[in-house]
Amino acid sequence: MSWIVPAIAPPCAEAFRRALQRQAELTKPPGSLGRLEQLAARLAAMQASWRPSLDRVWISVFAADHGVAEEGVSAYPPSVTREMGRVFVAGGAAISVLARQIGAVLEVVDAGVAEPLASPGIIDARAGSGTANFTRAAAMSASQRDRALAAGAEAVMRARRYGAQLFIGGEMGIANTTSAAALACALLGVGPDRLAGPGTGLDGAGIRHKCEVIETALRLHGEALCDPADILRRLGGFEIAALTGAYLTAAAASIPVLVDGFIATVAALLAVRMQPACADWFLYAHRSAEPGHRLVLEALGGEPLIDLGMRLGEGSGAAVAVPLLRAACALHNEMATFAEAGVSGG
Ligand SMILES: O=C(O)c1ccc[n+]([C@@H]2O[C@H](COP(=O)([O-])O)[C@@H](O)[C@H]2O)c1
Ligand SMILES: Cc1cc2nc[nH]c2cc1C
């Protein structure tokens, strides 16, 4: 693999300890803010600060096409990937609205849509013109995979120059739930019936067909599915590889990551398998309605913040969860301590 997996340091243990100590001194019974307390302490540790802050949030949405779409595994045609690219920058997609609402920077990256998005406002980081159909061949070459990983890394470099305090990766790619499910099957050693779901809206027969398509791919690639980088090359998508590269690079750059839904979480699992130390930098935004998400989250020990039945992708679940993280920071930073407020019992 010529893309170098970066070295990753752990979040600041001293900032974590001090943050937990402060939580115990705030005017509330210990633990009464539930998971918000631990979240604030984890953000304090990741930002190596006693006042964690999420004023500057960065969202990169990676778009790419999938050869496996020709197997009829999605409720929508592949042309939607390209069409949605334009909607993202025009401001009418869900993630466009949410990014505005939370005051985040939103960029759209063409990681390998079949026909280039090539429109103003879209970043060209194409690793190829859609992947190959992985029921017949490897989805991508090693150099394409490395280019896609680098596309994610470059997005994080832009985020870092902006001074991002939180990185969100979104994805758009018709048929990418088939790719994500196949990747998760290979990584977790379980069958497609536990990981394939409706995606954009398949019915029961559609899901059974999707399972057969994944079985065919797992049989074809067989014993070769052992190393995570090679699993990514054989069964992945360019936007999934870009997310993996982005997550690893964000962790190496000490930028907290808020992971979105099913596809994004599979990219996080790949990142953790490539470099386990990145896990400490990940927060999980939501539990997607895509049924396989539960298993992938469990494998990562990820506890999602919200469960609203969302299954859109684009980074939308993560964007919706940002106000919760901001609430955790505000409480941590602004509440009075027992001593300051003169309240007894602290
Ligand atoms: O994020 C999720 O959990 C999620 C679950 C189901 C579908 N999606 C989105 O829907 C598209 C993939 O669905 P499909 O059915 O074409 O594989 C892709 O653009 C994803 O962003 C996303
Ligand atoms: C319209 C549409 C928007 C999306 N956004 C992410 N995945 C999507 C899939 C479809 C079909």
From TrEMBL:
<dbReference type="InterPro" id="IPR036087">
    <property type="entry name" value="Nict_dMeBzImd_PRibTrfase_sf"/>
</dbReference>
<dbReference type="InterPro" id="IPR003200">
    <property type="entry name" value="Nict_dMeBzImd_PRibTrfase"/>
</dbReference>
<comment type="pathway">
    <text>Nucleoside biosynthesis; alpha-ribazole biosynthesis; alpha-ribazole from 5,6-dimethylbenzimidazole: step 1/2.</text>
</comment>
<dbReference type="Pfam" id="PF02277">
    <property type="entry name" value="DBI_PRT"/>
</dbReference>
<comment type="function">
    <text>Catalyzes the synthesis of alpha-ribazole-5'-phosphate from nicotinate mononucleotide (NAMN) and 5,6-dimethylbenzimidazole (DMB).</text>
</comment>
<dbReference type="GO" id="GO:0008939">
    <property type="term" value="F:nicotinate-nucleotide-dimethylbenzimidazole phosphoribosyltransferase activity"/>
</dbReference>
<keyword id="KW-0808">Transferase</keyword>
<dbReference type="InterPro" id="IPR023195">
    <property type="entry name" value="Nict_dMeBzImd_PRibTrfase_N"/>
</dbReference>
<protein>
    <recommendedName>
        <fullName>Nicotinate-nucleotide--dimethylbenzimidazole phosphoribosyltransferase</fullName>
        <ecNumber>2.4.2.21</ecNumber>
    </recommendedName>
</protein>
<keyword id="KW-0328">Glycosyltransferase</keyword>
<dbReference type="GO" id="GO:0009236">
    <property type="term" value="P:cobalamin biosynthetic process"/>
</dbReference>
<dbReference type="InterPro" id="IPR017846">
    <property type="entry name" value="Nict_dMeBzImd_PRibTrfase_bact"/>
</dbReference>
<keyword id="KW-0169">Cobalamin biosynthesis</keyword>
<comment type="similarity">
    <text>Belongs to the CobT family.</text>
</comment>
<feature type="active site" description="Proton acceptor">
    <location>
        <position position="314"/>
    </location>
</feature>
